[in-house]
Amino acid sequence: MRCGILTLSDKGARGEREDLSGKYLIEFAKAQGWEVEIYKILPDNEEEIAKTLLNWCEDLKLDLILTTGGTGVHPRDVTPEATKRVIEKEIPGLAEFIRYISYSKTPMASLSRGLAGIRGKTLIINLPGSPKALQEIMPFIKEVIEHAVSKIKGDPSECARN
Prior knowledge:
With about 160 residues, the chain is an alpha/beta fold. The protein is built from six helices and six strands, in the order βααβαβαβαββα. A six-stranded mixed β-sheet has the order 2-1-3-6-5-4, with helices on both faces. A hairpin with a 2-residue loop joins strand 5 (about 115-120) and strand 6 (about 120-125). The chain starts with a strand and ends in a 10-residue tail after the last helix.
């Protein structure tokens, strides 16, 4: 699976904060045998985020894009808005599942506005900007990601689990 990791953080983009979330996602992806083809840190700028997502879907034709950061309620948090501009099909259940995993850890999970969706043959998932949250979430959604990417690519096998 070819993937891209996109960190959204004003401070990270200015070099004022180390990107621990992006680094965690890179290591997690590699541990699954996923190929991390591109990694980038951008400021919280809706236009720039949407342009990058579109480029990674249309030009790089990645299978998976994991974004981290910019999903909360701060005025600069615009990742969901940028993602909504790019996706063709929303997958609300995946975003709900990500929040569900976090609810038992913190009530602040209810403030996450992250989305998941598909553009062409690319799965895009907005994730929190917290490395701790990612450590709690990623092991639970690994199988879902792999199954979704397989289906997006046209796998005709049955989805039912025994």
